[in-house]
Amino acid sequence: MRRRRSRQAPALGVGSLLLVQPLLVLSLMFALPLTARLSGRAVRPADWWWAAVLTLAVAVLVVVGDPRAGAPRAETWHWVLVVAVGVPALVLCLVGARSGSPSRRALLLGLAGGALFGVGAVLTKAVVHLIARGPVPLLTSLELYVLVGVFGAAVAIQQLAFRTGELQASLPATTVTEPAVAVLALARSAADQERALAAVAVTSG
Fold first, then answer.
1. Per the confidence metrics, is the pTM higher than 0.70?
2. 3-state SS of 70-135?
3. How far apart are CA 117 and CA 176, in angstroms?
4. Can you tell me the distance from the alpha carbon of 156 to that of 121, in angstroms, rounded to the nearest whole number?
5. What is the spatial distance between Cα 10 and Cα 164, in angstroms, rounded to a whole number?
6. φ, ψ for residue 5 (rounded to 5)?
7. Contact, 54 vs 26, CB < 8 A?
8. 70 φ, ψ to 5°?
């Protein structure tokens, strides 16, 4: 008799996030000429130089980060750490964004929005994993409802950041913070955290 192979959702952990999330940093390559076009300004040679450096950094990331399969859902201690560290940091960014120059406020809002998008990325992986298990596990999971709230808040804060100051102050902060938070939230050990931070540092640097 042939054994039936059990269908399991692919286990995607910190390794896959090291590949997928930092690739989103390349969205800055599209934002650069679009922003210059809409504002009626020419892109400076220095801007193109840094764009090339960023693209090269993402290529290096694939080697340094060594993306591999891992756990599809974050463990409980990950969420305890995210709440203990992330919530106070988020509150400080939002409170700090209530005053100061438009650029400073946009930067802080961009950091807050990017952090929430990073948490949302981890929750999305968990929800996709639960979808493969059926509607009951999905609808009875906390991740689904937290995901809706987190993404709603992230979009609202990001749009506020875009309206508050120039795009160059908020978009890079959002783009870099998202993968940093996502990979740290799924890091299963101190070694994974160090590897994740090194890879994100290479990309954002």
1. no
2. CCCCCCHHHHHHHHHHHHHHHHHHHHHCCCCCHHHHHHHHHHHHHHHHHHHHHHHHHHHHHHHHCH
3. 11
4. 16
5. 40
6. -80, 125
7. yes
8. -155, -150
- Between CA 205 and CA 188 the distance in angstroms is 24
The residue count for the chain? 205
Quick: pLDDT tens for 42-60. Answer: 777 776 776 777 677 666 6
Residue 151 backbone phi and psi in degrees, to 5: -65, -35
86-139, pLDDT tens digit by residue?
Answer: 899 999 999 999 988 998 999 999 999 999 998 998 888 889 888 988 889 889
CA nearest neighbour of 135 among 127, 123, 124: 127
pLDDT at 195 (0 to 100): 53
Query: What's the token pair of residue 49?
Result: 């130089």
